[in-house]
Amino acid sequence: MGAGVTTALSEAEPYVPPMPPLAERVGWLRLLRAFRRNTLDAFPRACLDEPAVSLRLPGGGCVVLLSGPEAVRQVLIGGAETFARLPAARRVLGAIAGRGLVLAEGERWRRQRRVLAPAFTPRNLPLMAPHIARAAEAACARLDAALGQPFDLHAEMQRLSLDIAATSMFSLETGPFEARIRAMVSGYLRTLGRPTVADFLLPPGWPTPTAPRRALFRRRWLALVRTVVAARRAQGVQGAPRDLFDLLSEAHGEATDGLLADEVGTMIVAGHETTASTLFWAATLLARAPAVQDALAEEAEGLDLGEAGAAASLPALRLARAVVQEALRLYPPAYMIARRAVRATEVCGAPIPAGATVMIPTWVMHRNPRWWERPEAFLPERFLRAGQEPDRHVYLPFGAGPQSCIGAQLALAEATLVLARLARGYRLTLVGDRPVLPVATVTVQPDHSPAFRLSRR
Predict the structure, then answer these.
(1) pLDDT in tens, 203-213
(2) Dihedral angle of Cα 28, 29, 30, 32, to the nearest 10 degrees
(3) Are β-strands 357-360 and 62-66 bridged in parallel, bridged antiparallel, or unpaired?
């Protein structure tokens, strides 16, 4: 990144995006209501100052909010035997993930992680980059048709990210499946994918009121994924692996199609949602920060971002990557990480009874002035300062420890390449002054889809 770009960033007044305030007090009733409507309402301001905040629930249960690097080390990195995934997570995500890695535990998780890990190593990024570049060019062709007009960029980023997920995984055009996949995923996240009070309060194994509808969705979802897998298998294998499906199939060996379908379905949803959310929020930030937009365009100028050159150009996109990292700080996909204590213990001096729910509010940790300079501001340059990288135990957009997101590096590369291509081709502005506020249930979504206006550079 050139000196001119650095100067432009340092001289511009940073943009401060609107955010919902942290709660002054949170009781159990507000906590449970927040999980249904907007989980961000459940985080008390006390989490900025206190490493542990405990809330009592009816019936003797409790929730402990842990906010700090020591809690991350104890719970996420060294606590695999003491802290397990919540039964609520299995209820909410099981319809999509099934037996996939995201819900696996213990030895089964270790075996599946070991099988899948080689497919997501950085050395496979050159295999994925052409798929990303091709999908980005197709999106730009659609954007060209909307120049100068109010445009729903949120919907376009969802379509683009699904194209990337489908082409990088299957080398398939999404045309025959796109509408069905998008409708099923978005519909589930809006309805059955929202946690309910019953998901948290009922003991494991007890059916919830939404269980029959989730089971029906699962049957329909698996049928669709298996149709996509069958279409890909019909293409056959030609030479070296050409996409994630080849790598996953090779990794699973003789595994049943049922497990492979669960892994594939999980990757489609996880890749689609993470990339779409990150690109939308990055675009929203850039629309209010024209100096950063101009710097991005300058960085990308002259680089080959097409299918042939995208992989080689990726290391040069330092600012684009920093913008993505800052968008992930302000709007982290894993805005909260929850676990259940399988036995009594102590974390950060706070007693944790057996059965207690432990929550690490990434959302709050990413905004704590103890660890971040001007945490409320959009400052991508904080990720460009050599030797001043954020502590990996307080920057958790993809979680931390052994169970962190296996596709984190691929998601970061996808968003970086697409953002650079968009910034080089277009100027982004938001239509109107209505603030875009985050709402968190399963992922962090906008409270409305704002209209953007694009003009060619």
Answers:
(1) 878 899 999 99
(2) 80
(3) parallel
